[in-house]
Amino acid sequence: MSSYFTELAQQYIDGEWRQGTGSWDIIDFNPYDGEKLASITIAAVEEIDQAYQAAQRAQKQWAATNPYARRAVFEKALRLVEEREGEITEAIIAELGGTHLKAGFELHLVKEFLRESVHLALRPEGKILPSPVDGKENRLYREPVGVVGVISPFNFPFLLSIKSVAPALALGNGVVLKPHQNTPIVGGTLVAKIFEDAGLPGGLLNVVVTDIAEIGDAFIEHPVPKVISFTGSDKVGRHVATVCASLFKRSVLELGGNSAIVVLDDADLDYAVDAAVFSRYVHQGQVCMAANRVLVDRSIADAFTEKFVAKVRTLRAGDPRDPRTIIGPVINSQQAESISATVEQALAEGATALVHGTTTDNLVEPSVLTGVPADSALLRQEVFGPVAFLVPFDGEEEAVRIVNDTPYGLSGAVHTGDVERGVAFAKRIDTGMFHVNDGTVHDEPLVPFGGEKHSGIGRLNGETTLEAFTTLKWISVQHGRSGFPF
After folding, report:
1. From 47, 214, 254, 396, active-site residue
2. Which pairing describes strands 147-151 and 174-178: parallel, antiparallel, or unpaired?
């Protein structure tokens, strides 16, 4: 077991590793075998305040630091991640139940986002804008917002913490990070350790391992943070947005999805099968961009279904430490029970199981269902597990209607032999992201990432990260003399 679980089972506040003062402990379990990895006394409201106050104090000097000096921290952080890949991979497998394949995928993206943060430190630019007033110079400054609160999820915790933490810091902000209770090390204190060892000044980044049962809304209500970056469910996201709006805070919300992969009648069938199986079953389907629904033109549905089912049957479920494993455990027993209940509900509604995986503890084998009634609520909600719904359609018009018939709009994909036909299809989908002749699971450092409808508010990555974690200030200079009416 990685030494991280003994070294990093603490709070990280104001540059110090210490125990929380909350009333109970979070027990960090391996979701595959139930092994106890760590025990962490949770942070109380007092620690939330201390973390935000530390970030606010440290931020002023950090913002005034030459951005060329700031970027050196991110260059070092990148080198440390590269040097520690083996240990981090072990931690991802142990704490998340992620497979070797998943750990490699997550680490690749973490490194890409750290590389982008190196450049992001130099990205903010000012402007001088013209004025209708003679002698006036309008200067526009782009400045850090101050302090950013980050709440990260359990599915890609290292990546989705780094994705907000690193850019926010690179742009001159202080940060307080609250990781998910199921991934306090990989999603929280590991991030702190990387930046501490990279030379980030103490107090700038704080990690509080806690639970709303202890702190309520203290993390998002605290007066210091000006932006809350939240990744998680739309139910919690709605609450975060409501609290932030009432306090005039900005929120960036990366929420759930119910993506579809659409296979048109002229698609490369074998390639579409590979893309669809990956898009549904990567990391046990615990991905917001995962393809819950696989829509196939009825003219090719039989041939596609036969190939899809055959490939799904080859997916090896089991111990994530085995490099041959494709399907590891889901994060906890509640998720496992929820996924099993989803399958049983679909069958009760009249669906047919072409593959009916069994559930043993947290290990949920893949299922493939067809014949789910068109009016079923299951087709409109996010299913965070290895269950695929195959849905035939008659022509593009029906496909567009089915894809859009959900409260979510995060990602999606279409497969076709005609690229421009695919682009025209993509333009008709109410979604933040859509891919032609590819899978549904993509994230790149320069491309705006985010959703429409219940899938979130705002975007991250590239220029949109600048918008998320900085603010604009207008300073005018009157070089002549203004005339006043009295």
Report:
1. 254
2. parallel
